[in-house]
Structures are given as structure tokens and as C-alpha cells.
Design goal:
Largest interface: A-B, 36 and 40 residues
CATH class of chain A: Alpha Beta
CATH class of chain B: Alpha Beta
Structural class of chain A: alpha/beta
Largest sheet of chain A: 8 strands, parallel, barrel
Strand content of chain A: 25-35%
CATH superfamily of chain A: Aldolase class I
CATH superfamily of chain B: Class I glutamine amidotransferase (GATase) domain
Structural class of chain B: alpha/beta
Oligomer: heterodimer
Strand order of the largest sheet of chain B: 2-1-3-4-14-13-12-9
Number of domains of chain B: 1
Radius of gyration of chain A: 16 Å
Strand order of the largest sheet of chain A: 1-4-5-6-7-10-11-12
Shape of chain A: globular
CATH architecture of chain B: 3-Layer(aba) Sandwich
Strand content of chain B: 25-35%
CATH architecture of chain A: Alpha-Beta Barrel
Distance between the termini of chain B: 11 Å
Number of strands of chain A: 12
Order of helices and strands of chain B: EHEHEHHEHEEEEEEEEEEH
Number of domains of chain A: 1
Order of helices and strands of chain A: EEEHEHEHEHHEEEHEHEHEHH
Chain lengths: ~260, ~200
């Protein structure tokens, strides 16, 4: 296993980084370029930018701010937001992205995962899954960028992630919606269940509140990376604090 | 310093160009053999699958241009793998600038494929490409096939087994990791590459 990754996530809406709780009530957290540079300099292992309303608004990510961010980064950059075609994915790569993350469009048309993997390689294809427990089963949700558009799909999360892997995903980011923005810790039970079903890397998302939460995600759920947004934006916890705690727990991280 | 980034298909060529521009180089993403032949440095980046990339290289008439390039040329990720004689991936014939064959990463439950993330570089021999890079420094890898260890190996990495992370023979160089996305370590490797004598 390579060093475990600490991933900084920028949810962008209207050109600004925002943060909600359980995907609602978004507050302004700052400028995406400034925040990306801050995380680069403080030791983030990867940066993810989500244009969170792109899918719901049926538009694609804004390429100009993608380039504006990518130009400054010397760590991997993954982008997400309304990417529905191979041509759009290629445009993202041509504007400085290293990986493409797809979520709602993959649920609309699962063959898209394979089409993208065939052209760009599986290492380039990340499938994001927004998941919440409904009637005792984890279910995948769609169009989660806006409370008015959030839709439960007919798919069970654990079946969907396996299908995504089989179709050519190189990594799964599991957004545990019930923990999003709560700072109560990652959903270890759900992550462990997902880890047991996958052979590709799994990234934990939703609920990070303290450095100990990252230790739990790595040590208990064996995820390859853990993603955080709100606690980093607010300055409540620094990436160095997280890495120190993770290393002290005996888990390998990049210094 | 003019650097030609060879465009052979779909890949993160823009992030390679941004990295070179941060070091003050003038990077051009191109598939034109004349532009490539005239460049002071050539970067063959990592894109898609080996067989597909070699087909594109032949369609574009770039095989001879790359093989005859007299100044420093560096392959990155798949670009490094294309420099070898063969690849198991799609049973592709490579450029034959480095000896040996590229093989599939031996996947296991401890080491699922692809190898994706930050892993340590182990210095195998002293080389200008490693100036200022500490033994055990972390670099960002994303790959499912590996290059053999051999006399060309400068640095190795471990995932499943040990494989070539950096190579050099004559004017031909390579990195299995992505220097454009490996933080200060990667930037130093690229700066070292730009600073090589012609």
C-alpha cells in the first residue's frame, strides 16, 4: 500500500468554495485558487474540485477556473461536475486535470464509465457515490448539489460500487451523506462494507472532524485516502495536524 | 529552454506543461515530428494503453523522430514504458531505447492494481537526475504495468515487487511516477532534467 492520502476537497458553487451540512445550507468558504494553493503548501496529497451544481444544472465544469487552479498545483488534481461525455472529460484533462470524477452522469448511463476508461485509462476514472441509509440499506443518490434536486436512485450503494469497478472505475470516493459536514467522524461501518467489496482504491468522504477520525478511517476501514473539506477550510484542523496523528498511529503518510 | 511534450493521445499533458512552465521552460504540446526534432528537450508523457499509444506514434510517423532524438528525452509513466523493447500490455513493440520488457504489476489483496498513490523512491545509483532528491523521498505513481530493474535503473520503488522508478541510458531518461504531480520532489527531478548537458 502506498502512503495513505489526505485529500482536500473544494466544493465550488458560483466560482466560490462553499460548504454545507448534509448537502444543505451552503456557506461561503473562500476563493478556490487561494484555497488550493494553501492546501498544496500545507502537504495535501491530492486536491479534488467539485462543481457541485453542474450536474443538477445540466452544464459542465468551468474550464477557465480549472486551468487557473491546475496551473499552480504540483500534486494530483481530480475534477468533478457534470462531465457527461468523453469529449468533456478530455477537455478537463487538456485544462490541467489528472483524474476525472463522475457521479450523477455515471448513474444516468453506467456505460459512460467504460467509455471513459477505454480512452483515458482506468487510473483516470474516479466514480463518486453519494450514499445514505434508507430503510436499513445504503442507497445511492443523484443530483446532490442542490437540496431541490437531490434524488434517491433505485441502486443500492454496495451493488453500485462493485458495478462501477467492473465497468472500469479506478477508484471509488464514497460520500457518506448522513455524516457530511457534521464533523462526527467518517462512517466507518459503511466504509468497511465498501472496502470488503472492492479491489480498487477507496476514498472516505463525509464527517471528518478531528485528526483521530482520519486515523480511524485508515486503521479500521483500510481506505487508501480520506477526504476533508469544511474542517480544512475553516482552519479548525490543519493537514499537518492530521498527518502527525496518522503517522503517530503507525500508518504511513507522506511527510 | 524549448520543451516538446509529445501528444500521442488522451492524457494529462496540460499538467506536464504547467509543471515545466513553473520551472521557466517554454512547453509546447505537439505531435509534429519537425517541432519535436527541433526541441531542446522532449517529454513523452503517460497516456492510455501501450499498444494504442504505439499505434498512434506510428500513425504520426514519430517512431524514427523519437529514436533519433539526440538531446535529453524523458518518458513519464506510460511514456517510460514505451521506451523499452516490448510491453505485455496489448503485446506492444516499444521504441527499443531501453533494454527489456514491461510486465503486468503482480496484483494481490495487499497490493491491488493500479498502484495509485505516493510511494518511496530508493536510489540505485548516483545520477544528476536525482540531485537534491533524498533517498526515500515520496513520488506520485499511477500504473498497472512495471519496467524491469536493470543497468538503466537509477531509482527503484516497491509495490508488490520492486521495479524501475527512474531510468537513464545515453540521452534517454524516464520516470514511472508523475514528476509533474510529485510536489517538490517531482519539480526537482524536472529541473534536473532541464539542466542536463545536451
Amino acid at each position: 500500500m502506498p502512503a495513505r492520502r489526505i485529500i482536500a476537497c473544494l466544493d465550488v458553487k458560483g466560482g466560490r468554495v462553499v460548504k454545507g451540512v448534509r448537502f444543505e445550507g451552503h456557506a461561503d468558504m473562500g476563493d478556490p485558487v487561494e484555497l488550493a494553493i494553501r492546501y498544496r503548501d500545507s502537504g495535501a496529497d491530492e486536491i479534488v474540485i467539485y462543481d457541485i451544481t453542474a450536474s443538477a444544472e445540466r452544464r459542465v465544469i468551468d474550464y477557465s477556473w480549472l486551468s487557473a487552479i491546475a496551473r499552480h498545483l504540483d500534486i494530483p488534481l481530480c475534477v468533478a461536475g457534470g462531465i457527461r461525455s468523453v469529449a468533456q472529460a478530455i477537455a478537463c484533462l487538456e485544462h490541467g486535470a489528472d483524474k476525472i470524477s463522475i457521479n450523477s452522469p455515471a448513474l444516468e448511463r453506467p456505460e459512460f464509465i467504460t467509455e471513459l476508461a477505454e480512452v483515458a485509462g482506468t487510473q483516470c476514472v474516479v466514480v463518486g457515490v453519494d450514499s445514505r441509509m434508507i430503510d436499513g440499506a445504503w442507497s445511492a443518490f443523484q443530483y446532490t448539489g442542490d437540496v431541490k434536486t437531490i434524488t434517491k436512485t433505485a441502486r443500492l450503494t454496495m451493488d453500485w460500487i462493485v458495478e462501477a469497478q467492473e465497468r472500469g472505475a479506478g477508484e471509488i470516493v464514497l460520500n457518506c451523506m448522513d455524516r457530511d459536514g457534521t464533523r462526527e467522524g467518517y462512517d466507518i461501518a459503511q466504509l468497511k462494507a465498501a472496502r470488503a467489496r472492492l479491489s480498487i482504491p477507496l476514498v472516505a468522504s463525509g464527517g471528518a472532524g478531528t485528526p483521530a477520525d482520519f486515523v480511524a478511517a485508515f486503521a479500521e476501514a483500510d481506505v487508501s485516502g480520506a477526504l476533508a473539506a469544511g474542517i480544512l477550510h475553516s482552519g479548525a484542523v490543519g493537514i499537518a495536524d492530521i498527518k502527525r496523528a496518522v503517522a503517530q498511529a503507525g500508518v504511513e503518510v507522506r511527510p | 529552454m524549448s520543451v516538446a511534450i509529445v501528444k500521442v493521445g488522451v492524457g494529462n499533458t496540460a499538467s506536464v506543461a504547467f509543471a515545466l512552465e513553473r520551472l521557466g521552460a517554454k512547453a509546447t504540446i505537439t505531435d509534429d515530428p519537425a517541432v519535436i526534432a527541433e526541441a531542446q528537450r522532449v517529454v513523452l508523457p503517460g497516456v492510455g494503453a501501450a499498444a494504442h499509444a504505439m499505434r498512434r506514434i506510428d500513425e504520426l510517423g514519430l517512431r524514427a523522430t523519437l529514436r533519433a532524438f539526440p538531446r535529453p528525452l524523458i518518458g513519464v509513466c506510460l511514456g517510460l514504458q514505451l521506451l523499452y523493447e516490448r510491453s505485455e500490455e496489448g503485446d506492444a513493440e516499444g521504441l527499443g531505447l531501453l533494454p527489456g520488457a514491461v510486465t503486468m504489476l503482480p496484483a494481490s489483496t495487499q497490493a491491488p492494481s493500479p498502484h495509485m498513490g505516493w510511494s518511496k523512491l530508493a536510489r540505485v545509483r548516483e545520477h544528476a537526475l536525482l540531485d537534491g532528491v533524498e533517498d526515500g523521498a515520496y513520488a506520485y505513481f499511477v500504473h498497472s504495468y512495471v519496467c524491469p530493474l536493470g543497468e538503466a535503473t537509477i531509482a527503484a520503488a516497491r509495490y508488490g515487487g520492486s521495479f524501475t522508478a527512474m531510468a537513464q541510458q545515453g540521452n534517454v531518461y524516464g520516470c514511472q511516477f508523475h514528476p509533474e504531480r510529485s510536489g517538490a520532489v517531482g519539480a526537482r527531478v524536472l529541473a534536473n532534467f532541464l539542466a542536463l548537458p545536451c
